Structures are given as C-alpha cells and as structure tokens.
Amino acid sequence: MKLAEVIVDVPTMQTDKPYTYLIPNDLKNQIAVGSRVAVPFGNGKRKVQGIIANIVNKSEKDMNFEIKEIDKVMDLNAVLNNELLELSAWLAKSTYSFRINCISTMLPSAMHAKYKRVVNLLDNNITDKDIINLFKNTKSIDFSEIDSNKKLLNKLMKLQKENKVSLEYLVNDKANSKKELFIKSNITSAEAEQYLKKVRKNSTNQQKLLHLILENDALEIKQSDLINRYQISNSTIATATNKKWILKKQVEVYRNPYKSKVSRNYPLKLNHDQSLAVNKIAESINDHNKDVFLLEGVTGSGKTEVYLQTIQKALVNGKTALMLVPEISLTPQIVNRVKGRFGELVAVLHSGLSKGERYDEWRRINEGKAQVVVGARSAIFAPLKNIGVIIMDEEHDPSYKQDDNPRYQTREVAKWRGNYNNCPVVLGSATPSLESRARASKKVYQLLKLPRRINNHKLPNVNVVDMREELAKNGQEDFSEPLLSAIKQRLSKNEQVVLMLNRRGFSSFVMCRDCGFVLKCPNCDISLTLHMDTYSMKCHYCGHEEPIPKVCVNCKSRKIRYYGTGTQKAQKELLKLIPEAKIIRMDVDTTRKKGAHEKLLNRFGNNEANILLGTQMIAKGLDFPNVTLVGVLNADTSLDLPDFRSSERTFQLLTQVSGRAGRAEKEGQVYIQTFNPDNYAIQLAKQQNYEKFYAREMHIRHEMNYPPYYFTIKITANGGQEQRVASKIFEISKYLKAKLNNTAIFLGPSPSSIAKIKNQYYYQIIIKYKNEPKLNECLQFILNYYQKDAQKGLYINIDSEPLSFM
Ligand SMILES: Nc1ncnc2c1ncn2[C@@H]1O[C@H](COP(=O)(O)OP(=O)(O)OP(=O)(O)O)[C@@H](O)[C@H]1O
Ligand SMILES: [Zn+2]
Ligand SMILES: [Zn+2]
C-alpha cells in the first residue's frame, strides 16, 4: 500500500512534522514527491493544503491505525524538487522555524495566495468524448469543478504531458498567465501578390498589409505592433480578417519585468587578475568541486565581468547559474548587464516584481527555459536544476539576512546548495564581511584578489572634513565649505556628483527648546520624523502619521525646533546654496512606485541632473563614468548605533559609496563629513584600505569576545503586556544559564534597543558561545514549551547569528 508523508499548511509547533495519508488508487499515478495536495485535517471537515515530503510502501498488516485519504492533487506537476524539499528540512532546523513556513518562503506567492485554477484547451483535435464534452462551449474550465473526478483527471494529466491542455493559476481572479493578441497570415506570399493587384489604388492601408505578408513568410506579429510600428489601422485589420487574409490568435506570453530595452553587451578582454580569478573558478566548475571563493576586489576592479564570464563557463558546461545581488530594485544596472550578456536565458526574481511577473519568471526557471537566474535574497530558492555556479555579489550586504521567520542567512543557503549540486560558490565584495574574510584566512574559503581598478585607474582621493570645526567657523551643519566648493567646481565642468545622507524625511526629530520634550510615536518607542512633502510627522516603523505640532504638547511653549537633517531638507538647502543644481533625490519616499528607482537612475545616467542625493541605496553597484565627486553629508549616522557591527557597517558604507567616484577616465574625489574624524573606521575608509581595517577590527572583536570569534544567538520575546514579556525572558535566561557551559556569555536579559514597536514590547537575551552541543536541543525545548503562550499573544523568536545585537 502506498502512503504519503504530507507537510500540512498549519504552522504550529504540534503540526511541524509530516502526517501520513493514504494515496487512493486513482491518484497513484498523479502523486509525486513535491506535489501539492489537499488533505483532510483534524476531526472536522477541514481541508488543508500540504506538500508531499515522502512516499513510502507499507504492507497492510503493518498498519494498526485508521488512516485518512488524500483528497485531491493541486497541480499536475510537482512544485518542489528533491533538492528544495531537503533544503526546506535543513532550513527549518537551522533557523528554528516551521518547515511549512520554509516551504512557503521558497515558493512564489502566487502559489500560496488565494487562487483559482483553470485548465486550458490547447489542441482542438482531441477525439476523447469526455474531453470534448468538458470543453464544449469554452476553451478553459475551472479546475475545482472537476478535480474530484478522478477519471477525467487521469485523462487531463495525459493530455498535459502531450501539451494538449495546460493548467494555470488565476490569482485574485486576474489571469495569472498573460495572453496577447497576435495576427497570423492566412495566405501565401503568392496569394498576397495576387490580392495586391486587385485592391483599390486608394486603399493604401490594405496594400501596406499585403506587402507585409508578401515580404514575410508566415507572418506572425503582435496586433499592437502592427498598429504602432506599421501604422495599420484597426479597421484595416478588421477588413483583412473578413477577407480571410489574416487570422487572429491569442498567444500566451511571459510578462517581461524588464521592458526597458536592454542593450546587448559582449565579453571584455580580461586583465591579468580577472582571468586568474575566472580560471580558478572555472576549474572548480569543470571538476565539480564545492569550493567557496572569496573574490575580494576594490571598487571598480571589474568583479561583475568576472561573474559574467564565470556564468558563461557554467553554461558552456551545460550547467545553470545563480547570481544574487542585494535588493535588486537598487541595482538595475547589474541586471541589465546580465540580461545584456545572456538575453532570453535570464530570469529575474525579486520583490519589486508583481506577483504575476514573479510567478512567470519562476515557471520559466522551473520548466528549464531560463538557465541563468539573477535575483535578490529569496532567489536563492530558485528551482534551478543542475547548478554550475552560485555567485553572491556584495556578499557582506545586510539584506542577505532575512529579518523575519525563517531568519536565514543567504550565504549559508548558497553553500548548502553548492554542496548539493557539487558546484563552487563565489562570494564577491570590495569590503567582505569579517566572517567571510576570516574563513579565507583559515583557508576554509579560497581568496581571490582584484587589488587594482580596471585600466589601473586610481582610487578616488578621500578627504575627511571635521564638522566640529566647520560648525564653529561657519555655523554650517550640513554642507561644509570644502564640499560646497568642490560641488560647484564639478558642476562647472559638467561633471556629476553623488551625495549620500543616510536619513530620509526632512528632520529626524522635533524638540522643544524650553522643556526638551521630543515628539514620539504613540505605538513605538521611537521619535517621529518630520516630512515636508506631506506636512506631517511620521513613524518609520509603524506608519503612524500626525500633524506637525505648533506648540509643545508638554509645556505649551512655541519654541519648537527641528533637529537632524534628512534628505528632503538637504535638497532644499542645497538648492538655496547652488540654485543651478539639478538634483535627483533617491530615498524610500521617492522610489516607492514600481520602476521609479530605475527611472531616476536612467535620468541621472542621461545627464538630466547633475546631483544624485540619496540614502544608502545609492552607495552600491552604480557605475556612472561621469561621476567625479562623492560627498557623505553625515558619516556618523551608522557609527553612532550601539552595536558591535557599527564600525564594520560604517567602513563598508563609506568605502562602497566612495567607490562611485572616478570609475572611468576622469579622476574621482570624495568628501566625508563627520564629527568623529579620528575614528578608525573613518580613517581607514579614507585610505580605502580593507585589509588594514580587517586586521584592526578582528583585534577588537577578539578582545571583546565578538563574532567571528564567538557564535551568537538572539532570543526575543514580544507581546502586548510588558510585565509578562519581561518575566518570560528572565525565565528563559535562567533555564539556559543552568543548561549551558559557564563559558557561554549572556548579554541581558534586557529590553531591546527599540523596546516597543506597534504596541508590542520586546525583550531579549544574546548568548555568545564557543561550543555548546546542547544548545540546539534546549532552544527546541523552549520553542515547544512556550508554544502554549502564542495563543495568548506572547511570542518567542530565535535568531541564529543575528546581524545586530540591538
Ligand atoms: N577587462 C575589462 N576591460 C575593460 N573594462 C572593464 C573590464 N572589466 C570591467 N570593465 C569595466 O570597468 C567598470 C567597473 O567594473 P565593475 O562595475 O564590474 O566593477 P566592480 O568591481 O563590480 O565595482 P563595485 O564593487 O564598485 O561595484 C565597468 O564599467 C566595466 O564595464
Ligand atoms: Zn516643551
Ligand atoms: Zn510607530
């Protein structure tokens, strides 16, 4: 007897294990490991979705309990292959989350959203009576009306294999796969020539169409192209259809998320360091080695070209390739370079796409139509088969860690898949994470270096501006004298400037000068930010919005002042100081609309503006040859955070953004404004000396018992009642202290650094440890034990290797 182990879509601790179901005989051929099914669950009539994790054979006498049957199959194909199923199990264990949540994370949301399924008829010459009956008046039918008819289902499965029907998902009642109207010629060229002689001389439109048919054998063209490109009117098309010169036809097309014309590009001749790197990686690809490479290359050293030619090597070997970039919407330039090189072979996956676009791209990968995937964090779960190389650009980027369940680090998943596929993983960065660089020192990773910029262009010259002096001298807080005159000079030469200010909005907070009162969010433990475009105070955590106060809420004083400059205010001030400046502002507020980011960058690339002013989203990946000056308005925003990684982040950010200057012929220049000019992270960013920073920071981490010398884990409790949250976390801390070695170091329990978000209180413990074989078991116990509190609104979350201690 065949039994299926099903992971059900009920994310709780008790249900986080496969349930066994009987596979009814008539579904035997349709069910495979990785298929989605509907199964009865609990004792009521409830049906839930599930994924088949395993199929086992059991003899009847081994079964001593009553077992329920699978109700129906949701797809005609498995949606998760063996690799991804195995990965989901590993992911659940290593991130302390439910397996079903891991599976959901892996699948495009169109597959877990509300949907309707339809079967489309693709072939009109089917002879089977049942099928003819089924599609009597229509070309597509609702799958749920027939999915319990097992006989019909069997026939449809067969027809699908022969490409005679297709199953599709309709999300929110909108067709999930997109169709376009095509025009097909219904006559031969010779016939067209005959008709040409017959049409009236003044029907120029019909003549145009006939010429088109005459010149193009078996013409097939989008109706919209016919109208727009060839200026053939709707009425001509109607006439031609009546005369049976042409046929209309609906063709399924994949939505193309990158409509802007991508210009084709070709492999460049590699320099010495680049070819050394490509050869090393290619060797690994050929030999099926699971090496991890760390490609440490200064900004503008041509890392992207190394990635592209490595991908090429994988393709030549008949393999696929996966390339990850940080939050892709921020780096359309890179996507265009990959698309420009590999064209149709490329699928793009990231959160900026619509559900439908994402689903289409996912299907193209799953069906083997795309061999190269480029995408942000979750693209690491792309259903690529036979992977030849996995690349992570900017491997140090914080966006590679998911900050919600499952809290995975993409780098670890990449290594898991590299291991499974017997292929190398390439981690690239100008400023690698300390963890990765340390592993390279220990020869766990292979270090490849690109120490020079392309064509030996110089790294930009970086100046640190002491804002304490500037403030005393000129009373200027935002734009120092040296930066301002450098901007003016560059603009007069028609060169471009990039300015970074890591704070959006107008002012970061308002404070009463008489009593010191700061306006805070009523739901969160954080001050409200002033926004001038909406004339309101906003909370950046929960979205709360209120009017700008005219008098102090606390003492009724009118002396309310704005403190801290955000991008909006900087833009306004800069325009006052340099009226001829043409500024593009780029932050969360100006890039909210789909495609806005790309549009702004294109405008900057076309020299429609001479200053790009933005938050850290402008720091990485941009390659504009005309940018010769970079200014950092306030280098201290990331330095002031109370976190052990704040120096590392600051160094990375400053080095990355500096690297935008002088990438081509013209030399670059950088000004970093700071109130901490002597800080080592700022001084070493001035030298753009990663290796020195690495050595210095490792020393500090060693002294302070921080990663990578220690492993870390963060346990957070949250809930609506502060008292209860606090007492839970103390309980947990006590339990763990008793269980773990006394070499484990506990930080806390304490309130999290933002102690309240959306009316939820947060308390945490951080544990630093070297070797704790019992830890995993203890944490599983905690999750189990406190499961009962989840119903009462008290949650425990575990973050392995958290990005910050805050
Ligand atoms: N071998 C080569 N010959 C000529 N030009 C090259 C070569 N390799 C790369 N380039 C060009 O050099 C410029 C910088 O390369 P690229 O953007 O790949 O650098 P990068 O190392 O990724 O930089 P960053 O880390 O700053 O983003 C690009 O315009 C690229 O086209
Ligand atoms: Zn006051
Ligand atoms: Zn809030």
TrEMBL record:
Cofactor binding note: Binds 2 zinc ions per subunit.
Sequence ranges assigned to domain Helicase C-terminal in this UniProt record: 547-701
Matching InterPro entries: DEAD/DEAH_box_helicase_dom (IPR011545), Helicase_ATP-bd (IPR014001), Helicase_C-like (IPR001650), P-loop_NTPase (IPR027417), PriA (IPR005259), PriA_3primeBD (IPR041222), PriA_3primeBD_sf (IPR042115), PriA_C (IPR041236)
Catalysed reactions, semicolon-separated: ATP + H2O = ADP + phosphate + H(+); Couples ATP hydrolysis with the unwinding of duplex DNA by translocating in the 3'-5' direction
Catalytic activity, EC: 5.6.2.4
SUPFAM superfamilies recorded: P-loop containing nucleoside triphosphate hydrolases
Keywords assigned: ATP-binding, DNA replication, DNA-binding, Helicase, Hydrolase, Isomerase, Metal-binding, Nucleotide-binding, Primosome, Zinc
Keyword Metal-binding found: yes
Residues the entry annotates as binding Zn(2+) 1: C512, C515, C552, C555
Binding site for Zn(2+) 2: C521, C524, C539, C542
GO molecular function, one term: hydrolase activity
Gene3D superfamilies reported for this sequence: P-loop containing nucleotide triphosphate hydrolases, PriA, 3(prime) DNA-binding domain
Cofactor: Zn(2+)
Domain Helicase ATP-binding: 284-450
Presence of the UniProt keyword Cell membrane in the record: no
HAMAP family named among the record's database cross-references: PriA
Function per UniProt: Initiates the restart of stalled replication forks, which reloads the replicative helicase on sites other than the origin of replication. Recognizes and binds to abandoned replication forks and remodels them to uncover a helicase loading site. Promotes assembly of the primosome at these replication forks.
NCBIfam families to which the protein is assigned, alphabetical: priA, PRK05580.1-3
Similarity section: Belongs to the helicase family. PriA subfamily.
Record's subunit section: Component of the replication restart primosome.
Name the record gives this protein: Replication restart protein PriA
Gene from which this protein is expressed: priA
